[in-house]
């Protein structure tokens, strides 16, 4: 009985110890939970949510026109210059295309008209008074008149060929007028756009330095302006290069046609010389 009583006397002490340890564990867990909650960021829906960084500095409209208006004066000057170069490119394309088309059409029709003629006088009457082919015939007639007292037919043909060659070179040079501007625009426009790009990026870094922050809102406008200058430079350069190559091929074909016209006039000169016709008056051109 004494033993049972002693064991019953120790029971409350063990229970108290267990309850104390259990309470201490609850306190530790609670402390850990409070510490964890202090490190968790607030919910985005909470009133204390962080604001959007730099949202007040970003432009509302990021269209090309808005970026142009807010760009630096140097970037604006670059964009305006490149836009003007693009206008010049398309103006030269339109004017030169019409000029080439009309010149080739007149030369082709003139060659078809004189292919069956037997003398320079008849050929001149058929082709009219304006264009490259009538100019060839006039130069040949002029040389025949100037050489009317010379018996050497070979020398006359050589002088006529020399006059026609100079006319042919001059016609090719006149037709090339304006295409050099396309080559210049195609070669320099990308570098002008690159200059605007470098200037815009440099302004972005200056903005970072002044604001003492790496916020994207400080960098974005300058980069957008820089990329706009690059895009306008490519827009001006690519068509200029394509149009220049197109004109190079078309002018080459025109030179071939002018060479055919010169050869046809030389054949008529040779025919007139063989027939003994040297005192040829300048005929009246057909209206």
Task: Explain the overall architecture.
With 287 residues, the protein is mostly helical. The protein has one domain (70-274). The protein is built from eight helices and no strands. Helix 5 runs parallel beside helix 8, helix 6 (153-175) runs antiparallel to helix 8 and helix 7 (179-211) packs antiparallel against helix 8. The longest helix has 59 residues, at 216-274. It is rod-shaped and about 95 Å long. The model is unreliable at 1-13, 15-59 and 282-287 (pLDDT under 50).
Task: Note the topology.
Elements: H1 2-39, H2 64-69, H3 73-114, H4 120-127, H5 132-146, H6 153-175, H7 179-211, H8 216-274
Helix pairs in contact: 3-4, 3-7, 3-8, 4-5, 5-6, 5-8, 6-8, 7-8
Strand proportion: under 5%
Helical percentage: over 70%
* Total DSSP E strands: 0
Chain-averaged pLDDT: 76
Biggest sheet layout: none
- Determine Rg (CA atoms, Å): 45 Å
- Uncertain stretches of 5 or more adjacent residues: 1-13, 15-59, 282-287
Number of helices in the DSSP assignment? 8
Number of domains: 1
Return the string of H and E elements: HHHHHHHH
- Assign the structural class, choosing from mainly alpha, mainly beta, alpha/beta, alpha+beta, or little secondary structure: mainly alpha
List keywords for this structure.
287 residues; mainly alpha; 8 helices; 0% strand; rod-shaped; disordered C terminus
